[in-house]
């Protein structure tokens, strides 16, 4: 209720399909669910036609021909509010006895749902560990930021069911795309949005101080030009998380997108953030390797530069070789 979202686990109806249920809970429905939950009893409506005001959900089924309605609340072991709703096209079909029977039926259903969710959590945890292992395994001799980033974005697509994933490193006022995988977005457009760095006009506000964030529906959010482009391409749900090194410094950010609105919740965000943490460690090591290779290359060039200073050679030859080595060094 806090996030005003719901997940329809099952639906058997002659007037509605499961796909017609919105993942978003309206204010009137939320108030009705909260009241029912606080009272701890089933709600029975003998005839919807006699109600002066209907919630959005009740009004919708009434328009489809439902006259009487019964709804029973129950909670899962983690406190998640759940409901079972039964409706009929006939008026006055349900009473207190029916409500009590439905409540009794919900108790074993709640236990079954808890068990399935536990198994799903175990499977998800194992999948996250497998993905982190593959990201860490990308740190091989000769690995680059791009090679590691490519592994990460592919893992994000697979693990989260995303259609778009990107990893970006910050470098002062500019940025560097470490990896991008997308079923919808053109790769050549990404540099245009990210080239200016986290304070650029193309970025979402506040991205210079990256925080883990999930946007349930991009169509309802305040958007940057990059997000406008993503929405136009079909992305509705977005997640972002910081890339943090061992010293706690934010080195960049990762983002993922999904086609469906409300595809991800806080649990998915925690998974994405955990995966990004392993990426921060790998990126830090990779950048150290790159810096060491760059220093070694410069030392080698400097050695070749000094070797041109041969006192036995004519000054013109020394100057020519020296100038060529300077060009290579710089």
Report the strand count: 8
Percentage of residues in strands: 15-25%
Largest sheet: 5 strands, antiparallel
Which geometry do the CA atoms define?
Answer: elongated
Radius of gyration: 29 Å
- Intertermini distance: 61 Å
Low-confidence stretches: 195-208
Number of helices: 8
Percent helix, as a range, is 40-55%
Could you give the order of strands across the largest sheet? Answer: 5-4-8-7-6
The sequence of SSEs as H and E is HEHEEHHEEHEHEEHH
Describe this structure in words.
- With 330 residues, the chain is α+β, with helices and mostly antiparallel strands.
- The chain contains 8 helices and 8 strands, in the order H-E-H-E-E-H-H-E-E-H-E-H-E-E-H-H.
- Strand 7 and strand 8 (250-258) form a beta hairpin.
- Helix 3 runs antiparallel to helix 4 (145-160) and helix 7 (266-307) runs antiparallel to helix 8.
- The termini are far apart.
